[in-house]
Amino acid sequence: MKVKSGLKNTFRQYVIFLVLFALCLLFSILNPIFFTMKNIMNVMRQVSMIGVACVGGMLVVIQGGIDLSEGAVVSFVDIICAWLMVNAGVSPAVAILVSIAAATGVGYMNGFFVTKAKMPPLIVTLAMQGILYGVCYIITNSHSIGGFNDSFRVIGQGYAGLVPIPVIIMLVVFTAGWFILNKTYFGRYIYAIGGNAIAARLSGISVNRTRRIVYTLGGFFTGISGVIFLSRLMSGQANTGNGFEMDVLTALVLGGVSVNGGSGSIMNAVAGVAIIGVLNNGLVLINVNQHVQEVIKGVVLLAAVAFDCMSKYKASTETT
């Protein structure tokens, strides 16, 4: 019985890689351009922003929360960073540090309201989303901000040899996320809280403090993602992050990060991010309408959540 259960768990863990392989094969058949090295690098660069934000989002979801403000944080970082460089004459380095610090502060505020005010994470982050988008439109008066130093372009569009710099940043962030979750006590606390917050508290873990740190890290990583976005577009726009949080959440759920908390791995999250990139790129290459793409991604998210919930239910019934 244990062997059978182990095989099922192994299948659930690696089915995401089979899906990724099948999608790559399908799009390669439908359009031979898909599997060229140039397009593969393009896909990796496109998903770098999602990948970076996914690490922060993953920490939040594993500990049993959710963050719907990520897209708004991306827009907020873009506007703050662009405004500082253009209107305040601040150097790109200082503007980047200030905007990432602002994003980190937003993450802390999310964690503060969740832990101190005992508000549901869904409500807190949804409210923060509205606040940040409002601030962005007030600052810009619904106009874009451009005209900053061309050297800033390197972060989102530059290369280190053949590898895009955003991809390198993404890999560094993934490594940091892996280290946090697998090599630190803090990572164990995150899993413990997501699995059973009451048991974690009784075992001596400071649940509220850990949650605040997790949300703060989520804001930090999303801030990095926002800087990459701005460097790639070279224009600060209030609507840059529209729908971004859904791509992040879809990638996480596809990667096996349970919406119920307590489980998930960086490697599977990487596969989830890759699937989002492959879907976005492949659907464009075969000329699928943008609105149809949104429908497809919504269906994929629904199917992934359904699979996760059914797997959890079956696992619970097998142990009883």
Characterization of the model:
The structure is a single chain. The protein has a two-stranded antiparallel sheet with strand order 1-2. By secondary structure, it is mainly α. The longest helix is centred in the last third of the chain and has 30 residues, at 290-319. Helix 3 runs antiparallel to helix 4, helix 7 (165-183) crosses helix 8 (185-195) and helix 11 packs parallel to helix 13 (290-319). Helix content is 76%, strand content 1%. A hairpin with a 2-residue loop joins strand 1 and strand 2 (163-164). The chain is globular and about 55 Å long. It has 13 helices and 2 strands, in the order H-H-H-H-H-H-E-E-H-H-H-H-H-H-H. It has a domain at 48-242 and 258-266: ABC transporter involved in vitamin B12 uptake, BtuC (Orthogonal Bundle), CATH 1.10.3470.
Strand content: under 5%
CATH superfamily of the domain at 48-242 and 258-266, by name, is ABC transporter involved in vitamin B12 uptake, BtuC
Major sheet details: 2 strands, antiparallel
Q: Pairing-aware structural class of the strands and helices? A: mainly alpha
Low-confidence region ranges = 1-7
